[in-house]
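Usage

Read records sequentially. Each one opens with the input sequence:
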Amino acid sequence: MLLARRLAIGGVAAIATALVVGIPTGIIQTPWYQRMTPVLWWNYPVWAASALLTGALVATYVRDPALPVPATQGGKTFLGSVLSLFAVGCPVCNKLVVMAIGVSGALNWFAPIQPLLAIGSLGLLVYALWARRRAALACRVGPQPTASNAR
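and closes with the structure output:
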């Protein structure tokens, strides 16, 4: 039952993340937004991986009532998802980037670092998922005896 709930909630979160990142970046074409630069080949796998990793992370928050609550990795999850939005987005369409460094700066400076943002985004999401799994497994095993309480 718990596995089914985790899979369902993780799946919904992955789809929601894919829509929240894909629509405003123009990866998913809609009549509301026209991307000014073409979607690059590597945008699709980064977009899909960030959605799947975010879904997997959200699934770890579905708590087993028999276990204590593991430590949260919410900051890393949020930052990783936001970085993926910047990584796959159109550099010229990003108002924050254009305001900070202009259109030519967005194309000449920001666009070349977008793959690095993608690597950072996926790295943060993988680390957050690893930390959540490690914390969940540690909670399942229980506290290890120390010298003071092992008598």
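Summary fields computed downstream for this record:
- Residues 95-141 form the longest helix (47 residues).
- The chain has a mean pLDDT of 86.
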